[in-house]
Give the backbone structure.
Amino acid sequence: MSAPRSRKMIMTKYGEDFADCTDIVDAEIGEPGEGEVLIRNVYAGVNGVYDLNMVRDAVSYISYTPPTDLGIEIVGRVEKLGSGVHDFAVGDNVATWKVGTGYRDYQIAETNRLYKVPAASPEILCLMPTGISGMVGIEQVGELKTKETVAISAAAGGLGHIIVQVAKKAGNHVIGLCGSEEKTRRLKGIGCDRVINYRTENVEDVLKAEYPNGIDIAYDSVGGSIFDAFVNSLAVKGRLVISGYTSEVGKPWEQVTSPRIYEKLYFRSASVRAFINPHFEEYHPEAAERLLDWHEKGEIEVFVDPVTFVGLEDVPAAVQHLVSGKNIGKVVVKLES
């Protein structure tokens, strides 16, 4: 097999406009080495906030210097094996994620970061790693239990709708926050007990009126006023999990003047915790196995955003679509023609 022609998307400079700061270039593939395989990327998942933060040099824990490769997560197909590879075969469908490997046609990957999957489909891409992130975050950081009240922001997004179903399967009362009637309908369809459309209802007013005993787990990826509403609505021993703050990405930080957060937490023995997936990798394999089993048995519904994006040229539009908040479910880009 001759080396395939490949392209990739790179960040060329820092700035505020993702499209203006990126370019598509030819990429040398080379041969897979020991313990490696060549993968044809079939679908790439869009991580709009991280993509924007990379070009803005605003990833808090690392700085990416241009030029640098973009994209993180894919499902694809094994095309060639390196030496010493026995657990994978040519034609295997795999899921994998690593910064700089997603927005490209091909990649060479170490087998220790691959998961065999039944299909290289958008649905599987939503489960791995987005679904893994949601399951691990709510279970390990949120200390998911049963017969509690759980509230989830951006509940109809790629991450949120998985968390809704994980919490429901554990036997909890689930509140989903969203911003449209269509999203409301979809969330009711996967078992949300109460859907709050923040465009037509005041989130904090609803929580105070309908849940006077408070929220046991709040899972927030939005920040801003949603974060404030969750903090103010925590129950005794309530847990607020932060997994992002999309409301402030690309904007000046809001300056908040108020009592320090312990004034709100102390007398409720409540807590605010942060979650980022790479710090919990030991839980990934079991979560992946469970999610794939649920999917195979039809026990979990996967939302894939219906807007079609094809090819690396469509990545900037896909990023913009995601950060606009118009998506329902996981935003993906089809890479294989």
Remarks:
- Residues 7-127+302-334 form a domain with the Quinone Oxidoreductase; Chain A, domain 1 fold (CATH 3.90.180.10).
